[in-house]
Design brief:
Layout lengths: L3 H15 L2 H4 L5 H11 L1 H56 L2 H8 L7 H4 L1 H64 L26 H12 L3 E6 L6 H9 L8 E5 L8 H17 L6 H9 L2 H20 L18 H32 L3 H14 L3 E12 L3 E12 L5 H18 L5 E6 L7 H12 L7 E7 L1 H8 L1 H4 L10 E4 L5 H11 L5 H11 L3 H16 L8 H23 L6 H17 L4 H9 L6 H23 L11 H18 L5 H13 L8
Parallel strand pairs: 1-6, 1-7, 2-5, 5-6
Antiparallel strand pairs: 3-4
Helix pairs in contact: 1-7, 3-7, 4-7, 10-14, 10-15, 12-13, 14-15, 19-20, 20-21, 20-26, 21-22, 22-23, 22-25, 23-24, 24-25, 25-26, 25-27, 26-27
């Protein structure tokens, strides 16, 4: 029997979830889904939140005991302080109202030589000061009691928040399962509509790829290295570099420097020198007390002079207010022998002492800068030379004067202005800095990553930059990781035919970035979008071929498609259909615009466009459209690759339609998903080789299409 209270709470949370954008399009089936949720998910939700509910009960019992003890102690302290405060207020009022004669009689036993008789104002001041201090103590005790009370209650609030989040998460998970169970047979499953992380991020949120593991192992096993990283755009070259930054096993600074789009002789080395010098300078900074040292360095001479003036004024002011009377008494409360004068003198001493400490700290920082390691001193000097122009001047003046009738003079001036370093000087300075770093650093290594060097399309400029970097390679403890274009990789791999070129003689090895495997693609989608269906992730992997950028683009397109239809839940077949046809039709239109008017291949592209449009409207099945496209032929390799991609896309639609007709296709460990892996991997392999020669491409397409048997999904 289901507890009515728990059922009502689950139903309330589920109704709030239906108001969110992610579940809003399922409201038309809300009653059926809620019935399924209460029938199948209540016990699972209760079991998932049982530990958090027990923790909340224990926290509430402990807080009740501690609150009772705290309230008793707080009451006693506040009562005692209130009694003292009332007494002090009464005494201060008496001192303020009573005459001097009464004060002398009561407090000084009638003696006119007492300090009370000489300066009764000080007594009044002290009494009210003590009263103010007691008032502050009472206020502080009250505030401390409130803070303690909040600290005592905080575990209950924390436990309640944990239980609330756990319950909301469990209900959301159970609601997705109820949607899949209720609407899955119709081809509709729970699908996210908000995925802000389906973009390229600074850190890769999936397990280490084969390329990253190989490069990391290569760096760790060698004292110095120069590694080239090649691959197509979007294959994850930048991600490999960023993963090294977050890897603690590197044990040293990892510097990523983007390459220029246009080559300028010497400018790239200047930028590289600045980045490395800045990293070395920051790497040696002491974390402890860095804020205090920064505050000392930012304290200007003008502020120190102001503090000195205030301190001197505070010390002189009491003497200026000292006006002896006929009885030898001071009439001012700020006189040197009064309490106010004492405060002024103490303030003066404190301010002057503070200024002296700041000055000593500045001297100590200058001395500390002179004792820095040689590499950081050299790095800071280079940064100064790169950022500022230094100008030095010397002026000499001689004057000869004989009495008042003869005078002669001469003056000479010399000005020296530093010039910008040449390319060879920049390379030499950078090499000396890296060697100095290797000799004096405590780090195990430094990794310098030159990112996006493949943006430079001119082979001559690319060779020029590699030659500039070549002079810096193979310094002990220094490793270079450079991204190069696919053409550079081909040149390196052909060394046996074309001889040793600039790439062959520079890099120890050139590694090609591997495309994501199916498991890695699933990790990407799961880590960046909670609740992303495994079957859609597999089909996105197949359509992207495992290229990271295209995978994210496909998954993001699927999420945006569901978000654009907030009032209607989309089936898996419809999501994949829109995703595939949008890409294919856009590619066909772009190819048609790229051909000149009258080209005979325009007719073939128009037939392909018509065939895709017919299949999208549902006039023909994907299988029929696939057979129609098989009879088409285009001459250019790029257009042949487009035909092959269209055949692969239509095959994916066929797979999606068959898979969603099978039971439990939405379960991650279901039989349908397990059987779908082979088909997804074969289609991804065909997408990978779209740019390869025709025989390789045709073989991959035939393997993906002809060996596919719908029976394997069953």
């Amino acid at each position: 029997m289901v507890d009515p209270t728990i059922a009502a709470e689950i139903k309330a949370i589920a109704c709030r979830l239906f108001e969110r954008q992610e579940f809003k399009h399922y409201k038309s089936c809300q009653d059926e889904i809620l019935s399924r949720l209460l029938a199948d998910g209540t016990e699972k939700i209760k079991a998932a939140t049982e530990a958090d509910a027990i923790a909340l009960h224990r926290a509430a019992s402990r807080v009740a005991r501690e609150s009772k003890t705290h309230s008793r102690r707080m009451m006693i302290r506040m009562l005692a302080l209130s009694t003292v405060l009332i007494s002090l207020i009464a005494g201060s009022l008496f001192f303020s109202i009573a005459s001097n004669a009464t004060l002398i009689k009561v407090l000084a036993a009638g003696s006119k030589e007492s300090w009370i008789a000489r300066d009764p104002n000080t007594l009044i001041f002290l009494s009210w000061a003590v009263t103010a201090m007691c008032t502050l103590a009472l206020l502080g005790e009250w505030l401390r009691g409130r803070a303690t009370r909040r600290a005592i209650v905080r575990p209950v609030k924390t436990a309640a928040d944990v239980l609330e989040r756990s319950l909301a998460s469990s209900v959301q998970e159970a609601l997705s399962a109820a949607i899949n169970s209720e609407l899955g047979p119709r081809g509709i499953i729970a699908f996210p509509t908000h995925a802000p992380r389906l973009v390229e991020l600074d850190v890769a949120h999936f397990r280490q790829s084969r390329t990253t593991a190989y490069i990391k192992e290569f760096i760790l096993e060698h004292e110095a290295s120069a590694v080239g990283l090649a691959g197509t755009r979007g294959s994850g070259k930048s991600t490999v570099m960023r993963s090294l930054v977050a890897d603690p096993e590197i044990d040293g600074p990892v510097i990523i420097v983007p390459s220029p789009v246009r080559y300028d002789a010497g400018e790239f080395i200047r930028v590289l020198l600045g980045e490395i010098a800045a990293a070395i300078s920051q790497g040696h900074s002491r974390p402890v007390g860095s804020r205090l040292r920064g505050a000392v360095e930012r304290t200007s001479a003008r502020r120190l002079l102001t503090l000195v003036g205030v301190g001197v004024l505070a010390g002189v002011l009491p003497d200026a207010f000292t006006t002896p009377s006929s009885q030898g008494m001071s009439v001012s409360w700020l006189s040197s022998n009064s309490f106010g004068g004492l405060i002024a003198n103490v303030t003066s001493i404190l301010l002057l002492t503070f200024v002296a400490i700041i000055q000593l700290a500045k001297v100590a920082l200058r001395l500390d800068a002179e004792t820095l390691p040689p590499d950081i001193r050299q790095a800071r000097e280079l940064l100064r030379e790169l950022r500022w122009e230094t100008e030095q001047g010397t002026t000499t003046k001689s004057t000869l004067k004989v009495r008042s009738f003869f005078e002669t003079s001469g003056e000479s001036s010399i000005k020296l202005k530093s010039r910008a370093m040449t390319r060879s000087e920049l390379v030499s300075a950078l090499r000396d800095l890296l060697k100095c770093f290797a000799r004096h650093t405590n780090a195990t290594r430094m990794v310098i990553c030159i990112d996006e060097l493949d943006k430079i399309n001119d082979p001559d400029h690319l060779v020029a930059i590699v030659n500039e970097l070549k002079d810096l390679f193979h310094i002990q403890k220094v490793h270079f990781l450079v991204t190069v274009s696919t053409d550079a990789l081909d040149s390196f791999e052909q060394r046996g035919l074309a001889g040793r070129d600039a790439f062959d003689s520079s890099f120890d090895t050139v590694v090609h970035t591997n495309w994501l495997t199916l498991d890695e693609s699933l990790d990407v989608t799961n880590s960046r979008c909670t609740g992303f269906p495994p079957i859609v992730a597999m089909l996105c992997h197949a359509w992207s071929g495992g290229l990271a950028r295209d995978l994210l683009r496909a998954a993001r397109g699927a999420v945006e498609l569901q978000r654009r239809t907030p009032n209607e839940p989309l089936s898996v077949d419809r999501i994949i259909r829109n995703l595939v046809f949008d890409d294919l039709e856009g590619a066909v239109r772009a190819s048609m615009r790229g051909l000149p008017a009258g080209d005979e291949q325009l007719d073939g592209l128009w037939l392909l466009h018509q065939c895709l449009s017919t299949a999208r409207r549902g006039d023909v099945t994907p299988h029929q459209a696939q057979e129609d496209i098989s009879d088409m032929s285009l001459k250019e390799p790029a257009l042949q690759a487009l035909l092959a991609k269209a055949r692969i896309g239509l095959s994916l639609l066929r797979i999606a339609g068959i898979a969603t007709s099978l039971p439990d296709y939405w379960l991650e460990d279901g039989k349908t998903i397990l059987n779908l892996r082979r088909a997804a991997e074969e289609h991804a392999e065909a997408i990978k080789v779209l740019g390869e020669p025709t025989p390789i491409l045709e073989l991959a397409v035939q393997t993906a299409l002809h060996e596919f048997d719908p029976a394997i999904l069953r």
